[in-house]
Design brief:
alpha/beta; 60s Ribosomal Protein L30, Chain: A; single chain; 383 residues; 19 strands; 2 domains; Spore Coat Polysaccharide Biosynthesis Protein SpsA, Chain A; binds magnesium ion; 29% strand; elongated
Length: 383
């Protein structure tokens, strides 16, 4: 049976954590959105329209390079506007079946598409849905009373969802402009059409939170690996009244001298993260010769390293920093340093360690010419 597809990849994916928007991130070796487009093309789609954020044309060209029968369309401010932009761009006849699909559900397969096509023989819309396994509770906002909801006829809607092109365009045109449907089948329901459920699939999980990437990757059979990186840094003391260490300003009789704020703790940690993902060192990303980094807060460097981890669909597991100096005394500031690092790296506090030691008055740190820091981190990455 002939069909076309609209793949909605226009979201900004705020909840999926730092890094590139989730549709362009790598999942087991290819961009998230490419999984769905390949699946529809392999199942025989005549035409696949991919709705992308305005300005992401280059990212789309790269993500779908080598594929045919697809075209990008800029999305709107809401999901339903994006869907309608995709529907307008299709050149198929009005009685042809169109599947509307969220790019964030990358594991759509041939059986889902076949089952939807056969369900469309006796329906105006068809979608995969999963029974609700957990007991549902209702919390009254007025009284705080908790009651149990009967879940026996409740289903969780997934995508792709199948329609006839003319009917879904018409139903969207009739949908009230002051409310947004939470899926496309709701638009056909409102127009009085017959909607059929087919068996849903846990593999159609929607990538929403950072940890979903690892779970969906496991479902693809894609292996993960743990990478470890280490970093070291030292800065010289000079005139001043405070030092920056691990993102915290500590009053001291001297300052640390450096091109940025000379936060040796953050520099060592940034290098550890860059090391774990094989992305060079801090000087490659922020050359000391570049005047824009003069006096820069070093948290910018650490935020950059964290976003590079996100781009690789990685997750930082833990970090451990050791500060080496006689003075200033680190201990009174240690918890604030941990909190600051945890906030920059978006990690729970128990995954962030800051330790301090002296060199028993030996060497350059012992003579208080400067201080040093070393760091180690572990990162969970696609193999
Ligand atoms: Mg440095």
């Amino acid at each position: 049976m002939k069909f076309s597809a609209v793949v909605v990849a226009a979201g900004s994916g705020q909840r999926a954590g730092a890094g590139a928007p989730k549709q362009w991130r790598e999942l087991a070796g290819k961009p998230v959105a490419r999984w769905s487009v390949e699946a529809f093309l392999a199942a025989g789609a005549d035409e696949v329209v991919v709705v992308i954020p305005e300005g992401d044309q280059d990212l789309a060209e790269r993500a779908f390079s080598g594929l045919s029968r697809w075209q990008p369309v800029a999305g709107g401010a809401t999901r339903s506007q994006s869907v309608q932009a995709g529907l307008r761009a299709l050149s198929a006849s009005t009685d042809q079946i169109v599947m509307i699909h969220d790019a964030a559900r990358p594991l759509v397969g041939p059986s889902h598409i076949e089952n939807l096509l056969s369900a469309m023989n006796s329906a105006d819309a068809a979608l995969p849905a999963m029974p609700v396994a957990d007991t549902l509770k209702h919390l009254s906002s007025a009284s705080d009373a908790v009651t149990t909801v009967d879940r026996s006829n409740l289903w969780r809607a997934q995508t792709p969802q199948a329609f006839r092109l003319g009917a879904i365009r018409k139903a969207y045109a009739a949908w009230p402009t002051d409310s947004a449907p939470t899926d496309d089948a709701a638009v056909i329901e409102a127009a009085g059409g017959v909607v059929r459920l087919i068996d849903g699939d846990p593999r159609l999980l929607k990538l929403t939170y950072p940890e979903d990437f690892a779970m969906v990757e496991l479902m693809t059979g894609g292996a993960r690996r743990i990478a470890v990186g280490q970093g070291f840094d030292a800065h010289r003391f000079g005139p001043g009244s405070s030092v920056w260490l691990c993102g915290v300003e500590i009053p001291h009789s001297r300052s640390l001298i450096g091109h940025s704020d000379a936060d040796a703790g953050l520099h060592a940690l940034t290098d550890a993260i860059l090391g774990a993902i094989g992305a060079g060192d801090i000087g490659d990303h922020f050359p000391p010769s570049d005047p824009q980094w003069r006096g820069a807060p070093s948290r910018l460097f650490l935020e950059h390293a964290r976003s590079l981890v996100g781009d690789r669909s990685g997750q930082i597991l833990n970090v451990d920093v050791t500060l080496i100096c006689e003075r200033p005394k680190v201990k009174p500031h240690r918890e604030r340093m941990r909190t600051t690092l945890a906030e920059i790296l978006q990690l729970p506090i128990d995954r962030v360690s800051v330790k301090a030691t002296t060199t028993e008055a030996m060497g350059f740190t012992g003579r208080e010419e400067g201080l040093a820091a070393q760091a180690i981190c572990s990162i969970d990455l696609p193999a």
